[in-house]
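#struct-help
A.M.: can someone run this one for me? Single chain, 189 residues.
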Amino acid sequence: MLTRLTHGEQRVRVQLMEERVPLLVQALLQGQLDALVSSYPARMPDTNGAALRYERLFDADFTVIAPAGHALARARKVRWQRLADERWIMPANSSMARRMLEESFLRVGVMAPVPVIESTSPVTNVRLVAQGLGLSIVPAAVLASTGPAGKVKAVKVDPAIPGYPVALIYRAEVESPRLPSLRAALGLR
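D.P.: on it. Structure tokens below:
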């Protein structure tokens, strides 16, 4: 997408901002950003929902990860009840990934554990798991692209974590003149 966007006919400058979704939505509403390509909760809060438009792009897969030598990394299927007894490296409390993880525990009637480490960076979380500091949850794409070779393994959880929607999000009332270029780079009409 970035290649199509930066090599298109219109000259654009891309600024990537990696932050928790609530802060990104706030920056978008304040006009500091033109659009977001981001995960979002299935039910957006009413305060933001009316002011924003969402074009669903795909569902992102998330993966529970463990150090390669951990018993859970070799198991065929791991129940959430078993995962609750482990040490966890979790995303920040206000993050979408954290909410999704906690919902996965609650769906099977188990309280989510208290993390031993909190970190907002999925890349950092992969490295912390590789050091044997606990389990974590990361987008599957992050594990595929940054996982330390042979040091981190995906845990096959049962039930599986549902995909999380990723969308192009922009202000409903004020359309950026750069939005059509972004939509075209994403393959949207």
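A.M.: thanks! The chain has a mean pLDDT of 87.
D.P.: also worth noting: The domain at 2-59+164-185 is CATH 3.40.190.10 (D-Maltodextrin-Binding Protein; domain 2).
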